[in-house]
UniProtKB/TrEMBL annotation:
This protein's name: Uncharacterized protein
Matching InterPro entries: 6-hairpin_glycosidase_sf, 6hp_glycosidase-like_sf
Protein source organism: Planotetraspora kaengkrachanensis
Domain of life: Bacteria
GO biological process: carbohydrate metabolic process
């Protein structure tokens, strides 16, 4: 079977491995399964012949559904559009419809607290719908969850960053505005000053704290937290919770490198990358995300919001190096090698070339145009050397 949550988390690794057609096929399948009868949820899982997985689907009002999943699929559709320059990830009819109904109709139908944050009724029953990915959630059962609002915010933010013909500008502007409002709501209403961490979620009676797995680490994974003392305290809380009450399933750990890398806790992220590699686990999320953690997470390699721009930032400790090659980004194929945080080499081996933007410690940015066939070295000292020209 293939699952919506797993697909969302594995798509980047799959792209790096050349599985774009498979990513698009599965994404279209989930998108096409969302309809009014299912209150705009996509189905949770399919057999590989395209039929709903019987273990997770009994009828249109009795199937597994968890609020973060549709928003993650929307966010990852945008992500894959940026990595592939294939506008089908946004404009294929099933996906285009799914994107709009998820951000509008789905939220309107699932707003239990009237705050604009999608959630559920708080039954704790995954077949009736839950607000969180945490399937071992305990009472009080959340009606809105931190992994839900973080995923909803990330989807709005991703759509708001799209320009050009792939998305209507009015819809993009509306998503930017919604992302801003959700971010402000999270900042003003979800922080628990006495507990020194963000709430895991809310019931009708108010906020719920404590270490609650996905609801604790997703605000960091998605980046909805500001970079400030609050996020520092929340990440300390996350690290402590992982020591005292670690998750029982290996796939849960696959989110941790992303959470810590996003907020510059590179040593902690590398610890979990090594932990996952050492597990030798064959659960699909482990190998797929490992590819992404190493090739993209540690290198900071990612397409920019503007087409033809590629970013890097080393997350390596001093004295270590990493090199990745043959990475398709948009219409070009690129490679990058970091020597600690001291110097970086960037090359383009196919396509029209890119504008390379390298961020260094302290926030300084080096920007260089790199045509096809060229390799350029930039240093933390501001130096730029062309090593090879076409």
């Amino acid at each position: 079977m293939f699952y919506s949550r797993d697909l969302a988390h594995q798509m980047l690794g799959a792209h790096l491995l050349g599985l774009d057609a498979e990513n698009l096929s599965m994404l279209r399948h989930f998108a096409g399964s969302s309809n009014g009868e299912r209150v705009w949820y996509p189905l949770w899982a399919f057999e590989f012949d395209g039929t709903p997985a019987a273990i997770d689907y009994h009828s249109d009002d009795d199937f597994v559904r968890e609020v973060p999943a549709p928003f993650e699929l929307v966010e990852k559709a945008v992500e894959q559009y940026r990595w592939t320059a294939d506008d089908r990830f946004l404009l294929a009819p099933e996906i285009a419809s799914f994107v709009r109904t998820t951000m509008t109709s789905f939220v309107e139908a699932h707003d239990p607290l009237g705050t604009g944050v999608a959630g559920e009724r708080g039954t704790g029953d995954i077949f009736q719908g839950t607000a969180t990915y945490n399937e071992v959630d305990r009472p009080p059962y959340l009606q809105v969850a931190a992994d839900g609002i973080a995923s909803q915010w990330a989807a709005h933010r991703a759509l708001g960053s799209v320009t050009g013909s792939a998305l209507d500008e009015d819809f993009a502007a509306w998503n930017r505005e919604r992302a801003g409002r959700l971010g402000e709501h999270f900042s003003s209403s979800w922080w628990l000053p006495d507990d020194r961490h963000y709430a895991a979620g809310f019931t009708a009676d108010g906020p719920v704290g404590g270490f609650r797995l996905e609801s604790t680490w997703f605000p960091a994974v998605k980046g909805i937290m500001g970079v400030d003392r609050r996020s520092d305290a929340h990440l300390d809380f996350l690290r402590s919770g992982l020591e005292t009450a670690p998750p029982s399933n290996i796939e849960a750990f696959t989110y941790l490198p992303e959470a810590f890398l996003r907020y510059g806790r590179d040593d902690e992220a590398l610890r979990w990358i090594r932990f996952l590699a050492g597990s030798r686990a064959d659960y699909p999320e482990v190998p797929f995300t490992h590819v992404a953690h190493v090739a993209v997470g540690l290198t900071g390699l990612e397409p920019g919001a503007k087409e033809g721009v590629v970013h890097t930032r080393s997350h390596l400790p001093a004295g270590e190096w990493i090199e990745v090659a043959d990475v398709p980004v948009g219409a070009s194929v690129v490679g990058v090698r970091h020597e600690g945080r001291r110097s970086t080499e960037f090359q383009v081996t196919a396509g029209p070339g890119v504008t390379w933007s390298s961020t260094w410690d302290g926030g300084r940015v080096t920007t260089v145009d790199v045509p096809n066939g060229s390799r350029v070295r930039a240093g933390a000292d501001g130096s730029v050397v062309v090593l090879r020209e076409q």
